[in-house]
Task: structure prediction
Amino acid sequence: MLRLYFFISVMCLVKSDTDETCPSFTRLSFHSAVVGTGLNVKLMLYTRRNRTCAQAVNSTFLGNLNVTKKTTFVVHGFRPTGSPPVWMEDLVQGLLDVEDMNVIVVDWNRGATTVIYNHASSKTRKVAVVLKEFIDQMLVQGASLDDIYMIGVSLGAHIAGFVGKMYNGQLGRITGLDPAGPLFNGRPPEDRLDPGDAQFVDVIHSDIDALGYKEPLGNIDFYPNGGLDQPGCPKTILGGLRYFKCDHQRSVYLYLSSLRENCSITAYPCDSYRDYRNGKCVNCGIPQKESCPLLGYYADNWKEYLKQKDPPMTKAFFDTAEKEPFCMYHYFVDIITWNKNIRRGSITIKLRDKAGNITESKINHEPAVFQKYHQVSLLARFNQDLDKVATISLVFSTGSVIGPRYKLRVLRMKLRSLAHPERPQLCRYDLVLMENIETVFQPILCPKLLM
Ligand SMILES: *[C@@H]1O[C@H](CO)[C@@H](O)[C@H](O)[C@H]1NC(C)=O
Ligand SMILES: *[C@@H]1O[C@H](CO)[C@@H](O)[C@H](O)[C@H]1NC(C)=O
Ligand SMILES: *[C@@H]1O[C@H](CO)[C@@H](O)[C@H](O)[C@H]1NC(C)=O
Ligand SMILES: *[C@@H]1O[C@H](CO)[C@@H](O)[C@H](O)[C@H]1NC(C)=O
Ligand SMILES: CC(=O)N[C@H]1CO[C@H](CO)[C@@H](O)[C@@H]1O
Result:
């Protein structure tokens, strides 16, 4: 078996040395994953000049790398099947689209490919040493640590952290995309990614209950949909292989969408997902001058602001749609009621514009408590951002199927966009919502004085 494997490896090497003009990501078979692979780190440089055909670089040959530009390293994680990461090409092209930089794909597929996760994990520090040698050479050629950016996925996030530690946190930036949790959870900072590893560390946690790391690891830690289950991902093992990796991989797709110009995902700094969903965390920054942080490539807009915090860390929450471009549009629905008794229940709100587009939000995470003459502000999240709302529909529900049907007597409802506070706020006065019955109405512009 071993001998056969050795033979196959030699054959592959011979092949790649002779007829490979554009080096490409190492493609291995599941067979390699079963027998395991020895570490071999390949660095491939992409630039705007060399967009489709990479150049193999190493610490003795920097190729077309222009040290005066930003250099972004992309480091993948565990590869249980040996295949190249499906998102790599998109990530490289997306980065080159937004900025004229050097992008280096760190291909450690030989090392990461094994069915035994511990074996891949045990190679992370060695990959970091190879990257350190390369960066040292860049520095000799005149590069600055400020311009070095590492994007690490899963185990790759910890590799980026190990490189950062070797430079005492002087690297420009590290982005961790769902940093690996298993074998790293609960480890001290020196054994994992940590906010001290770069001048700015931003992290997206998308699978905290399985493959990802739960606790904050950066200056800003984004938890899409609370960080647990991502919408659109299979909920059961019947979903096949996707069941295992969909949540984990979502962090990469969210980051990717920040490189495209479809929409920007805004996140809300908050202590908990629950508080975010209850609408308690919509005033970004103090004293509300700072706009909310953006997820992904432009997250470092918040760097200077976070530096002033002690410690310079925050968690940020947001919900996403189930597919690209993932954005959801946040609105507040302010409701004042005048029922004599307290009513508890949820509201479903549907918006329709003149063109007939409809978008709906169920505000059902926790029943709201409606108390006479008290304003309740509910956070509604819509898939589409309808600019000119023609009609609004509301459904009130207490969740009970049997028993009396309740009414919610609404003195005033107000709809206001969080992303576009300058947009006119929409109001409606004097409504009675019969439980579980849809009430449709045309809103009016709220009087300016009451805003
Ligand atoms: C570095 O890359 C150059 C050009 O591809 C190659 O000739 C050289 O052997 C490499 N050096 C090492 C140490 O791998
Ligand atoms: C390197 O980048 C700098 C700044 O972007 C540019 O002025 C210079 O011409 C580049 N050098 C080469 C060799 O392309
Ligand atoms: C997002 O924008 C890119 C161009 O930046 C486009 O190619 C892509 O189709 C868009 N995706 C969606 C879902 O709109
Ligand atoms: C609304 O519908 C029109 C026509 O169906 C479509 O072109 C437009 O993109 C939609 N607007 C939004 C915000 O989805
Ligand atoms: C335009 C350009 O610089 N192309 C280069 C891309 O990289 C390959 C090596 O992988 C060079 O041969 C090309 O000259």
User: Anything to note?
Assistant: Residues 397 and 435 are 5 Å apart (CA to CA). The chain has two domains: 18-318, 330-450.
